[in-house]
Write a structure and sequence with these properties.
Elements (H helix, E strand, L loop, with lengths): L1 E10 L2 E6 L5 E5 L6 H13 L20 E9 L2 E8 L6 E6 L4 E2 L1 H7 L5 H8 E3 H5 L6 H12 L4 H17 L8 H20 L3 H39 L1 H16 L9 H6 L6 H20 L4 H8 L1 H9 L1 H32 L13 H45 L6 H17 L6 E2 L7 H22 L4 H21 L6 H5 L2 E2 L3 H56 L7 H6 L5 H31 L13 H38 L1 H5 L2 H10 L5 H27 L4 H4 L5 H39 L3 H60 L4 E7 L2 E6 L4 E3 L5 H19 L7 E4 L7 H14 L5 E5 L13 E3 L2
Helix pairs in contact: 5-29, 5-30, 6-29, 7-29, 8-28, 9-26, 11-23, 14-22, 14-23, 15-17, 15-18, 15-20, 17-18, 17-20, 29-30
């Protein structure tokens, strides 16, 4: 977790204070009373709550503001970027946690973000000040173990609570001396029922025998399971011993070597006595001894480290690799650019696909072949021709419908004026008689003709209107709406005409006698002629309408076939279903740019693959340096950076070794000049040799070397004893590792035998139960047996439940204890590494022995922590705390806060401390609060926050 910014609403002296952004390594500088500790307490309070009023901690409630609290913006959490706000409220304050997606939570969500740790644990591991540093000399093994347990179980407090809950639930079910728990009561019930069953069956010898055998088998099964569990526990213990056997073997070997090493007591000033054997040649001897000491010192300094040995052994290969490093760096940059281009092009391809109607995973349609283009053009022409034909047919149909309606309207006007056939015949006969007799006109009574022809006209209009409406529905252009509307209007008009009562002439309605003149008769003859002509025209229009309808149906089928062909083309070529044949012909190949972009991506991927092959080949050449280059070897830029750093350091070491070699040659030349004088002292020197039972100078010095080796072996022996102290009594029971492995195999076979025997006993028990069931025949005794079996089943269920609680709790506690043990040596190892860095390698080892923290100096001298100077002891404490934080980083990452922790350090120690903080800040955010102005020069401007 990283704190990106903070905003104080009101806390102590800080009112409306905002700091944004906060760096990975952030320095807060200010004089005394500037508010550094207040700001540090603010971060504690936002993350873990304000101190209660009953707490001894300061609450930092502002004096000049009603606001109390603030907020933090944090990143690198399981939920991404999160805003944590806490203001004044009940108990520890009211907290609001806002996630990046807008989701809002409270204390439960905040607890997940900080991995369930509380304020005390955070202050114990991730926050310290000068007072904490000064307590290092009070630290013993017990207190260290508490810290190790904190590291080992960090993030698993809920598991410990669950284990306690399981133990509590198991206690509710059964207590050894209890009466109330369910299992205790159920055992009493089972025992009482068992006595009833035995009493009821005591007369049945066969049943009693079978039941006794069954109980014997059950007891044997329980015994076998118990022995099997014991054997499995022993097997686990033996496997643990096999893991520690190498340490034990090494310890025995060192003990044997020490017992065989017999050295006379050597005077500590033996070399000094050698230099002062003869007063007369004292100065010469002193010069010789000084030269020898200088030579020895130069040899020690010239001793090659593993890195130097690798460099000198593979010098040519390393130089070749260095010569190619610029190319590799360029390849890495090129790889990054190519990967960025591939991602960019891929995103553009996805965008273009979506715009063109393709799914993201859908393949890009192939390019159109000339044959396909010709086929598309032909289908396009057919589609256009069908559309034009359809348009013409629709226009013709509309014209015919209009013509039919016009003729119907004319008929409607003529028909009311027509006489019926009888009237016309009467008038005609009257005028004929008049003409023959030359008589005056007679008045003739008649009625106006009926409108029978109206029904025929209305029916034709309805048919034409329906045809126009259906034709409009199948058209896809704007003219279809006109046809639909016109057809509906024509149908409605025809229906109105059909149901309208025919209008009658006033004369016909009243059937009053009307006298018609000859002129009226002539007009009637003319009207009848017009009426017959209009009927003929309507019949012709109806025929043409039928032909137009049939033609429209043919055109519709052609269009449907064209559409089906277009859909088939889309499906075969992977075109979007929304594409029409017009799009394929008019817009051209819309996927050409998409294919080119895809081709470009494939080419870049090939380039990337070639670069990766070259980079992997280069890394394979550098792999032999992995033991000495401490970087993430899965990250090639880090490997390259580590290799360049290794090469520069190796070149510097090579020059330093050359200078030491030259000095060594000079000292040897000076020794040669004193050889003659040294020979004069051989007699006196021999006396010194005899005093330590040495034959010559080589033997004399060898005794001192062996003496030093013995000290080192004794130190190693003490460390090994500490590591296997818990198992040493068990390990001594075996002659060798083979003996231990044989015992492991024997135990495995014993477990298998137990299981096999248990299976046999279960089979025998089942046989007894089957025989018992045969003997049980109804009645009260059967009821007792059933009740007894039911009680036993209920008891077994309760026991299984109780056992599951106990086993689960035990497994959780074992797992957490195992996790703690695994982190113990890693934390000590990191502590040693940090302590060496802080002390410029003056101290080489940190270990815990006899409930005390001890350190080993470069010359092999071992000191208790209480014997160290205050500055060195504080460096040791810092190394311990940083090691704890590093070993907890795989579980939880929280910012590390240091409040003026290094005021007792001299300038050299402060420089080393800042270097260690920079190293730690690569993975852990660090806030350093100080009033030391000299520290400002070690930080960049953006890393410094000035407090006033």
């Amino acid at each position: 977790m990283k704190i990106k910014s903070l905003e104080v609403y009101g806390f102590g002296k800080w009112i409306d204070k905002k700091i944004d952004p906060l760096q990975q390594l952030q320095l807060f500088y200010g004089e005394n009373e500037a508010g550094k500790t207040t700001l540090m307490a603010f971060i504690h309070s936002i993350l873990f709550g304000f101190p209660t009023k009953q707490s001894s901690e300061l609450r930092y409630e502002p004096k000049n503001s009603s606001q109390y609290g603030g907020r933090l913006v944090v990143s690198d959490t399981p939920f991404g970027e999160v805003i944590i706000e806490r203001i004044k409220g009940k108990a520890n304050g009211e907290v609001t946690v806002t996630l990046a997606n807008g989701e809002v939570g409270s204390d439960a969500l905040l607890e997940k973000i900080v991995n369930g740790i509380d304020k005390a644990t955070y202050q114990a591991l991730f926050s310290f000040n000068l007072f904490g540093l000064q307590k290092i000399q009070q630290m013993n093994r017990t207190k260290l173990n508490r810290y190790f347990l904190s590291v080992g179980t960090l993030g698993n407090e809920q598991l410990l609570k669950v284990a306690d809950k399981f133990q509590l639930e198991a206690g509710k079910l059964y207590k050894q001396t209890g009466r109330v728990p369910e299992i205790n009561q159920k055992i009493k019930q089972v025992e009482a029922k068992r006595k009833q069953v035995r009493f009821a069956k005591e007369k049945n010898d066969e049943y009693t025998t079978l039941y006794t055998q069954k109980e014997a088998f059950e007891n044997e099964i329980v015994s076998l399971r118990k022995r099997s569990v014991q054997a499995e526990e022993r097997l686990e213990q033996l496997n643990h011993l096999a893991t520690n056997w190498n340490h034990f073997s090494e310890m025995l070997l060192i003990q044997q070597e020490l017992s065989q090493l017999t050295l006379a007591e050597l005077p500590e000033d033996g070399l000094y006595q050698l230099n002062h054997l003869n007063q007369a040649i004292e100065q010469v001897r002193i010069d010789i001894m000084q030269e020898n000491e200088r030579s020895k010192h130069l040899k020690e300094k010239s001793k090659l480290t593993q890195s130097q040995q690798l460099y000198l052994t593979h010098k040519e290969s390393i130089q070749e690799l260095f010569a190619s490093s610029d190319n590799i760096k360029a390849m890495l940059q090129e790889k990054e650019f190519i990967e960025r281009d591939i991602q960019k092009e891929t995103n553009l391809m996805v965008r273009d696909k979506l715009q063109l109607g393709l799914n993201i995973g859908q393949p890009i349609p192939p390019a159109q072949t000339p044959e396909q283009k010709r086929a598309y053009q032909l289908l396009y022409q057919k589609t256009r021709e069908s559309e034009e034909k359809k348009q013409e047919a629709a226009e013709k149909t509309a014209f015919l419908q209009y013509q039919n309606e016009s003729l119907s309207t004319q008929l409607d006007k003529i028909e009311p004026l027509l006489w019926d056939k009888a009237t016309l015949q009467q008038v005609e006969e009257s005028h004929q008689k008049k003409a023959a007799r030359n008589l005056p006109e007679k008045q003739i009574q008649t009625t106006v003709p009926s409108a029978n022809k109206k029904l025929l006209t209305a029916g034709s209009g309805i048919l034409v209107g329906l045809f126009a409406s259906f034709s409009g529905l199948f058209l896809s252009n704007g003219f279809s709406l006109f046809l639909v509307g016109f057809g509906l209007l024509l149908v409605i008009s025809s229906l109105f005409l059909a149901i309208k009562k025919p209008a009658k002439n006033k004369l016909a309605k009243t059937e009053t006698a009307v006298a018609y003149t000859y002129e009226d008769y002539i007009k009637q003859i003319e009207l009848r002629k017009q009426w017959r002509d209009k009927l003929a025209e309507i019949d012709q229009v109806a025929v043409e309408l039928k032909q137009a309808t049939e033609k429209s149906e043919i055109i519709r089928r052609e269009q449907q076939e064209n559409q089906e062909e277009s859909h088939r083309i889309n499906e075969q070529n992977g075109y979007p279903s929304s594409f029409s044949i017009t799009d394929l012909v008019k817009k051209g190949d819309l996927f050409d740019s998409l294919r080119e972009r895809n081709k470009a991506v494939e080419e870049k991927e090939k380039q990337l693959e070639q670069l990766n092959e070259k980079l992997v080949e280069w890394k394979a050449q550098v792999d032999f340096l992995e033991p000495v280059i401490f970087v993430d070897w899965r990250h090639l830029p880090a490997v390259l950076s580590g290799f360049l750093r290794f090469y520069q350091e190796a070149k510097g070491d090579e020059q330093a070794l050359a200078a030491l070699s030259k000095k060594e040659e000079e000292h040897q030349e000076q020794l040669k000049q004193r050889v003659y004088k040294q020979r004069e002292l051989e007699n006196q020197r021999n006396d010194l040799f005899r005093s330590v039972k040495a034959k010559n100078e080589q033997d004399f010095r060898k005794n001192y070397v062996l003496f030093e080796e013995r000290k080192q072996k004794q130190a190693r022996l003490a460390l090994l004893k500490q590591q296997v102290s818990e198992d040493i009594s068990l390990l001594e029971q075996y002659r060798d590792r083979t003996d231990l492995l044989e015992d492991i195999e024997k135990t495995r076979k014993q477990i298998q035998q137990y299981k096999k025997t248990e299976e046999q006993q279960i089979n025998q028990k089942i046989k007894c139960e089957v025989a018992l069931n045969e003997l049980e025949k109804g009645g009260a005794y059967s009821v007792l047996l059933q009740e007894y079996a039911n009680l036993k089943s209920e008891l077994q269920e309760l026991v299984n439940k109780w056992a599951s609680y106990r086993v689960a709790a035990e497994m959780i506690e074992r797992a957490l204890t195992h996790a703690r043990k695994d982190r113990f040596p890693e934390t000590l190892q990191d502590t040693t590494e940090f302590f060496k860095l802080l002390t410029n390698e003056r101290y080489q080892q940190v270990f815990v022995k006899d409930d005390k923290i001890e350190v080993q100096r470069q010359d092999g001298t071992i000191f208790d922590a209480t014997e160290l100077s205050q500055g060195t002891a504080e460096q040791l404490y810092v190394a311990l705390r940083f090691a704890f934080v590093k070993n907890a980083s795989d579980i939880v990452q929280l910012p590390l806060m240091i409040d003026d922790g290094f005021v007792n350090f001299d300038q050299d120690r402060k420089s080393q401390m800042i270097e260690l903080m920079k190293r730690m800040s690569e993975k852990t955010q660090i806030f350093y609060f100080t009033f030391d102005k000299e520290a400002l020069s070690n930080f960049r401007k953006e890393q410094i926050e000035m407090l006033y």
